[in-house]
Hints:
Elements: E1 2-7, E2 18-25, E3 30-32, E4 41-45, H1 51-55, E5 61-64, E6 73-82, E7 86-93, H2 97-107, E8 113-120, E9 125-130, E10 133-138, E11 141-149, E12 158-163, H3 176-185
Amino acid sequence: MITREFQLDGARVGDGRTIILAAVPFNTEALVDDDDGSGPYFEQFERGAFDSAVRAPHRVALLFRHDDSAKGTLGRGVLIREDAKYLHAEMRVARGSTGDHVLDLVNDEMLDGASVGFDPLHGGDRVAMRSGRRVVTRMRTLLAEISLVPVGAYASAGVLAVREAEPEPIPEPPSRANVERLARRFPEAVDLSRFRPRV
């Protein structure tokens, strides 16, 4: 699996458990090295390169620094979409000490980079020489995970926000007519003397 890191300066955050990311900028070259002996090269992603993740966001893991152990696994995708400039991801952080700690780091803007782990698909790359530089354009990939990292390679991608939790709706109390109807049907279960009408 290949990993790439991206960064966003000045993240905006809230206090919920869904992290909103600009995960990958499209058509933006970055100098990368896969540590496979082939040396550094320039890489960019085309819009559409992550179609399988857009269709099945729940299959994309949220990790801490590419650690896929139980301790490093933070959550999973709930929504992944593309626009003209970015692959956007909404990732849900699981409850627990690790998730809570990572959310604290994100909210304190100490952990605001994003890094993707992907597998290139056969025939999904285009290689070209531009001004003496080798440029690989990723057209089709299998996105396995998005990791939170302190610093990423692209300044224009990373954590955008942490969505605030939606407040639980307060249910309407039952009307007097509904309570009386239930009392007639289930007299042993409904005590009308404890009923307080709506104000």
